[in-house]
Structures are given as C-alpha cells and as structure tokens.
Design brief:
By secondary structure, the chain is an alpha+beta fold. It contains three helices and four strands; from the N terminus they run ααββββα.
C-alpha cells in the first residue's frame, strides 16, 4: 500500500513529462527517468492490485475452493505411452484403475493401504561416478 501511495505522488511528474510543450534544449534526463519510474510503479501497482483482488475472489468461490475432498489420487505409475496404473482413494477405499488412451478401467479394490506391498524402486541407472570407476579400472584389450 505504501508503494501505491509513493507511486501516486509521482503521477504529476508523469503528467508534466507528457505535456509535449518542452523544447529540446530544456530536455532533462532526470525528469524523463522519474517519469519512466512513475509509469513503471503505476503499472506494477495495478498488477499487484488485480492479483490481490483475484486471489480474494477465487478464495470465496465454492466451486474452486479446495476444502473437503472426497477423491484423492494417491499414486500414478506410467506403464508406457498413454498407459498408467492409478491408485485412487475414494471415501476411505483404495481403487486401482488402469488408464489407457481415452479409457479408464476398474481393476481392483484394495481394502487397506497397509496391504499394498511397498516395492522399492530398483535403481535402473547407475551413478556417473560408479560408471567412471568401472571404465577406468577396466583394462583395455587390443585386437
């Protein structure tokens, strides 16, 4: 708010600089610089004001509020191009769904999340350091 008040104090400088009655010999770099800063401050102030207004408005709309959610996507695992397994929680139950292209297929209901066997992701790629050590320690063979 303080920034907007300071910007408002510079508005007369903007109007004074835009009158076009000054001649080339009376050109002032400082006045032009202040005019540019005032215009920039005014634009930034308006952007912040619109942002603040829209965020307040969007919080009040019940359709867009993220209050009580009954459906939650727990995990998505890609199985290939446009194919995935989706674990969804709906009302305390966990559903396993298959997504392929434009189709969503029900697979299974999982009663409790604890029943799902947690499989650690195996490291598919090795670190660069281990690959470099292996390449350096490997003796080169000449054919």
């Amino acid at each position: 708010m303080r920034c907007l008040l300071q910007t408002g104090a510079l508005v007369p400088a903007v109007v004074w600089g835009a009158d076009g009655t000054r001649q080339a010999e009376n050109y002032s770099f400082l006045a032009s610089f202040l005019q540019m800063l005032a215009a920039l401050g005014l634009v930034l102030g308006l952007i912040l004001l619109v942002y603040y207004g829209f965020t307040r408005l969007l919080r009040k709309l019940p359709v867009l509020s993220q209050g009580n959610r009954n459906i939650r996507v727990v995990e998505v695992r890609s199985m290939g191009p446009r194919k995935a397994l989706v674990l969804v929680e709906v009302g305390g139950e966990y559903l396993l769904l298959a997504s392929s292209g434009e189709q969503l297929t029900y697979i299974k209901t999982v009663d409790m999340l604890e029943e799902i066997e947690l499989v650690e992701d195996s490291p598919v790629s090795q670190s660069f350091r281990s690959l470099l050590k292996r390449a350096v320690s490997r003796p080169e063979s000449n054919p």
